[in-house]
Design a protein that fits this description.
- The protein is about 55% helix and about 5% strand.
- Strand 4, helix 9 and strand 5 form a beta-alpha-beta unit.
- The two termini are about 35 Å apart.
- The chain is globular and about 80 Å long.
- It is mostly helical.
- It contains 14 helices and five strands.
- A three-stranded parallel sheet has the order 1-2-3. Strands 4-5 form a two-stranded parallel sheet.
- The structure holds tryptophan.
C-alpha cells in the first residue's frame, strides 16, 4: 500500500517563503508518490484567533489558492478543510485522556507561541491542547509521513506518544508518524536571524507583487558591519544568502557570490538586486497561477468540497476503528 502523507497549515494569513521551504516544497515533490492529504486547519486557527472567525474563514480560500499556485495538484493530493471533518474533534476528545496537563505545558513550540502572543496564564484550554488535535489530524488519515518545518517536531513527538499509548492500551489501530524536515534549515525573516513568521512583519508572501518583493528585499537585514561595498562581509547568518541558497537553482553562482562577499568588493545593493531577480523567477509563475485560480472561486470551492468529502470518509473509517477499540461501538446491549 502507498504510504500516506498528511500535513497542514492554519489559515490565519497568506503563506510565505518560509512555508514553501518548510513544507510546501516537500508536499509538491511527493504528492505523486504518496497518498497526500493537505489540511487547511481552520479549527486549529481558531485556537489562537477565537475572536476573529471572519479572518479565519477568509483565509481558508487564500491558503487554498496558495496551495494550488505552488503546484499542489488536486487530482493527486486531497485538500481537506478541517472543520468539514467533525470526526477529528471526536478523536481529540479520546486522545486528551492519554496526555497529561504537565506534558502539554512542556511543549516547546506551544511555549514559544504563548510567549510570542503574550498569552501567559491567560492561555485558553483549546490552545494548550492543540497538539492533541493535531495528533487527531495526523492519525485520522493514518499518515506515516508528515512534512513539516522543524518548529513542528514537538507535535510529531506528541503524536507518537499518543499513538503508542493508544495502541498499547486498546490494540494496534493507529499509525506512528515520522516527520520529514526540509533540506534547507529554517528560513530567517527579512529582519535578521529569527524565523520568518506571518505575524512578525518579516515575511515575503507567495502572493506578494513584484514591487513589494523588491521593496522587502531592499530593506533586508544583512551584515550590519558591512557598511561599504569594499569591506569584507559575513555570509553566515546573513538572510540574503539563506534565501539565495534556498531559491537560486545555480548553486555555483551562489558560491561565487559568497566568495566575493567575503573577500570584499560586493555591495549589499548589488547582492539584493540579484536576490530580487532570483525571487522573481521563482514567484512569477506562482503568482500567475494564483491569479488564474482566483478568477474561478467556484472551481476552488468545488476542489475544497470534494477533497473534504474524500478526507472525511477516511477519518470516519479510522474513527470507527478507534470507537471499536474503546468498546464504544455497540450500544445495543
Ligand atoms: N500546526 C500547524 C501550523 O502551525 C498546522 C497543522 C494542523 C498541521 N494540523 C496539522 C501540520 C497536521 C501538520 C500535520 O501551521
Amino acid at each position: 500500500m502507498r504510504k500516506t502523507i498528511l500535513t497542514g497549515d492554519r489559515p490565519t494569513g497568506p503563506l510565505h517563503l518560509g512555508h514553501y521551504v518548510g513544507s510546501l516544497e516537500n508536499r509538491v515533490g511527493l504528492q505523486h508518490e504518496y497518498a497526500t492529504y493537505v489540511l487547511i486547519a481552520d479549527l486549529q486557527a481558531l485556537t489562537d484567533h477565537a475572536e476573529q472567525p471572519e479572518l479565519v474563514r477568509r483565509n481558508v480560500l487564500e491558503v487554498a489558492l496558495d496551495y494550488l499556485a505552488v503546484g499542489i495538484d488536486p487530482t493527486a493530493a486531497t485538500i481537506v478543510v478541517q472543520s468539514g471533518v467533525p470526526e477529528l474533534a471526536e478523536l481529540t476528545v479520546y486522545y486528551l485522556n492519554l496526555v497529561t496537563v504537565a506534558r502539554l505545558g512542556r511543549n516547546p513550540t506551544v511555549k514559544d507561541e504563548m510567549r510570542q502572543k503574550g498569552f501567559d496564564a491567560d492561555v485558553s484550554a483549546g490552545f494548550l491542547v492543540y497538539p492533541v488535535s493535531q495528533a487527531a489530524d495526523i492519525t485520522a488519515f493514518k499518515a506515516g509521513v508528515v512534512p513539516v518545518g522543524e518548529d513542528q517536531l514537538p507535535m510529531i513527538e506528541q503524536t507518537v506518544e499518543i499513538v503508542r499509548r493508544f495502541n498499547r492500551l486498546y490494540g494496534p489501530v493507529l499509525v506512528e508518524p515520522t516527520a520529514l524536515v526540509p533540506k534547507h534549515a529554517r528560513l530567517p525573516g527579512t529582519d535578521g536571524p529569527s524565523k520568518m513568521g506571518k505575524s512578525l512583519g518579516n515575511a515575503i508572501f507567495l502572493s506578494d507583487p513584484t514591487d513589494v518583493v523588491a521593496q522587502k528585499v531592499m530593506g533586508m537585514y544583512t551584515d550590519p558591519r558591512h557598511i561599504r561595498a569594499e569591506l569584507p562581509g559575513t555570509v553566515e547568518g546573513n538572510p540574503v544568502f539563506s534565501y539565495l541558497d534556498a531559491f537560486d537553482p545555480d548553486a555555483a553562482a551562489v558560491d561565487d557570490l559568497k566568495r566575493r562577499y567575503r573577500a570584499g568588493g560586493l555591495g549589499d545593493v548589488a547582492l539584493k538586486r540579484r536576490l530580487i531577480e532570483v525571487l522573481e523567477r521563482f514567484l512569477g509563475p506562482i503568482r500567475a497561477r494564483r491569479i488564474e485560480f482566483a478568477r474561478d472561486p467556484a472551481a476552488v470551492a468545488r476542489i475544497l468540497r470534494e477533497g473534504t468529502a474524500r478526507g472525511r470518509a477516511v477519518a470516519q473509517q479510522t474513527l470507527g476503528e478507534v470507537r471499536r477499540a474503546l468498546r464504544l461501538d455497540d450500544r445495543s446491549d
